[in-house]
From TrEMBL:
Its membrane topology: Multi-pass membrane protein
Family: Belongs to the V-ATPase proteolipid subunit family.
Keywords tagged on the record: Hydrogen ion transport, Ion transport, Membrane, Transmembrane, Transmembrane helix, Transport, Vacuole
Organism: Colletotrichum higginsianum (strain IMI 349063)
Cross-referenced NCBIfam families: V_ATP_synt_C
Main location: membrane
Cellular component aspect of the GO annotation: proton-transporting V-type ATPase, V0 domain; vacuolar membrane
Residue intervals of the V-ATPase proteolipid subunit C-like domain: 28-87, 104-163
Identification of the protein by name: V-type proton ATPase proteolipid subunit
Annotated InterPro entries: ATPase_proteolipid_c-like_dom (IPR002379), ATPase_proteolipid_csu (IPR000245), ATPase_proteolipid_su_C_euk (IPR011555), F/V-ATP_Csub_sf (IPR035921)
SUPFAM superfamilies referenced in this protein's UniProt entry, alphabetically: F1F0 ATP synthase subunit C (SSF81333)
Length: 177
């Protein structure tokens, strides 16, 4: 009785069992990292830019000061780029399935955290720019809330780096099964 190749890969996790197809999951993690963080950065930039320009009509002297929202949104895409490069450098044609799953988890971690942070930055930036344009004392509060929103993406990057650092050191022998 022969075991189907998919079960051999899942049970053994060895590169020779899968013919090198395990790196697919790592590649999906690499792509997820950049795709989702760029979606978050795009949303944050677009949402806050509408408020920046509409507020700039009333108070053009504050236009450059209010662009901090769009700048902070773009930092999220840098987090995704860093994670994607780290994951891509760790990809090999024949690697243990364990490594590929950790790379997938790393990419999804930074990607979804960046997406959530982008939504938060966009919404905070939109409301904050409009409010601080009417009451300039609210600007510092807006910056603090933007920092709290930005750090969500940083948490995802830290988790992604930790997951990827474990991907090369894990035990892939599943002989207990």
């Amino acid at each position: 009785m022969s075991v189907p190749p998919a079960q051999v890969i899942l049970l053994t996790g060895t590169p020779s069992a899968g013919g090198g197809k395990q790196s697919f999951f790592g590649a999906i993690g690499c792509a997820s990292a950049i795709i989702f963080t760029v979606f978050g950065a795009s949303y944050g930039t677009a949402k806050s830019s509408g408020a920046i320009f509409s507020a700039g009509v009333l108070r053009p002297e504050r236009l450059m000061q209010n662009t901090i929202c769009a700048i902070m949104a773009q930092i999220l895409s840098i987090y995704g780029l860093v994670a994607s490069v780290i994951i891509a450098n760790g990809l090999e044609e024949k690697q243990p399935l364990h490594t590929s799953f950790l790379q997938l988890a790393a990419g999804i971690s930074v990607g979804l955290c960046g997406l959530a942070a982008g939504f938060a930055i966009g919404i905070v930036g939109d409301a904050g720019v409009r409010a601080s344009n009417q009451q300039p004392r609210l600007y510092v509060g807006m910056i603090l809330i933007l920092i709290f929103a930005e750090v969500l993406g940083l948490y995802g990057l830290i988790v992604a780096i930790l997951l990827h650092s474990k991907s090369g050191t894990g035990v892939t022998d599943c002989s207990a099964f």
